[in-house]
């Protein structure tokens, strides 16, 4: 069976800067895979390449065995690949109901509906209701996103990605910047993701990484340093060298 | 499933008609009977309102700036003029629709140039297209009548029943009916998932694409629809005045249009209509005070709007519209002057 997501010799250059170097990753179906590495290692760039926000300078990307290297962003989403952003990317003026409603409508192929009002389809409404309640957003569902507290916005960022019902979900530091008091909600949501969804998690918090992941890839300067199950990566002297200092203050 | 029913209720919050909106349209209709000697200027306002509604669709909802919206107005105007002049389509309503479709075709064709760029590119491209059309209209004066415009247009009765009269009564009701129907359509569109996706694209194109919204396709669709609306406005101009000259393409027309929308506010559909009334009133007022310099005063209004800043303007100048919207839409602070659109 083909891997959920695979890259072959992926390359990305920004001018003279080689940010992704011959990166070959394989993420098994149903995996809880973590991608770690120091700041600026190129983790977010990998996600941007996988989702089509950036075009690679070389290499290929396969989603469930199908080539998606040149597919535009929105088509990859419809193929079952969705993501959260390290820095929230939400609609400032739209409410959670509208935000989730859009994601659900697009996935059900109703996004181009121009005659029926949003909210007039039961199957869409049911999913909005379910998603909002799962992410504790019902109480703020009519507030413009820009006015929500940061923790709620972070939940919405994840909710939107999940409303697309991905088979492969990419999480770029989901708990980044969330105050300690609200962290629990986010982590619980991440832990409760359905098992059949393949997850690639980028995270600096090593406790979270080791409790969550069944496989870890370590990225340094855009290249894969090592990859393996958590116990093995934890013992790896190269990883220790890179993370000495990083891990202690995380 | 009460939660689900609730969601439907909340999601349709803005799609429901509010008392204030009904009052707005009754008032518009009442004007028709209250000022029977003012049909001509009221027709002008209705047409300007429709034109502004058109640019609100792309600017207020999708965040596409344009300095050349007169291109579509002009195509609509000349199409309607030529159809009537050469007796190709004599029935005005049908000619109106055909003229609108002509503008829509141009909108679709040029959308590919417009949607990809950033704001500045969009301003330049739209401006360029309008100037180009104006130059073409001047060059092919045997068709367009050049600087003299189309001469001798005679309009047949609408549907064979309602003849255009010299007081402009028929023209007014005809224009108002067109505006109302197109408004209803626009209102449906903006509250649909499609319309909502435009606002999503305006807010954050990156996130829009990341939930599966085909950004370019949606922008092309709304740009084409807006061109149709502008074309209808242009065709109404020709049909109600029996005139079509080069100034239908003029830069001032596109620029005034932005001013109308800035005055009325974007993104709630009524902005263009309210803006058209206020703009035309200001124009009248200034031309009474200083006949030669009214353009200066209009310009000054624009400068003040820009200098004072959007936030404060929002509170001062748009106090009335905002109050109205609170009634109309049942929501707060919906009027926003176009922000620096996009990234
Ligand atoms: N659009 C861009 N143009 C130029 N350089 C870029 C661009 N995006 C990222 N970079 C550079 O590429 C490198 C990798 O950035 P990236 O954001 O992928 O790192 P990261 O591993 O996600 O870091 P962090 O842990 O801080 O989020 C950095 O040196 C960054 O400055
Ligand atoms: Mg990053």
Produce the secondary structure layout:
The complex is a heterodimer of chains A (250) and B (343).
Chain A: E1 5-14, E2 17-27, E3 32-36, H1 43-51, E4 58-63, E5 66-67, H2 73-78, E6 81-83, H3 96-107, H4 122-134, H5 150-163, E7 168-172, H6 180-191, E8 198-202, H7 206-212, E9 215-220, E10 223-228, H8 230-235, H9 237-243, H10 246-249
Chain B: H1 2-11, H2 19-34, H3 39-61, H4 70-85, H5 92-115, H6 119-139, H7 141-144, H8 169-190, H9 193-203, H10 205-210, H11 215-241, H12 251-264, H13 270-289, H14 294-308, H15 310-315, H16 319-329
Helix pairs in contact in B: 2-16, 3-8, 3-11, 3-12, 3-13, 4-5, 4-6, 4-11, 5-6, 5-11, 8-11, 9-11, 12-13, 13-14
The complex binds adenosine-5'-triphosphate and magnesium ion (MG).
Magnesium ion is lined by residues 43-44, 86 of chain A.
| CATH topology category name of the domain at 5-89 and 166-243 in chain A | Rossmann fold
Mean pLDDT of chain A: 93
Low-confidence stretches of chain A: none
Largest sheet of chain B: none
- Cα Rg of chain B: 20 Å
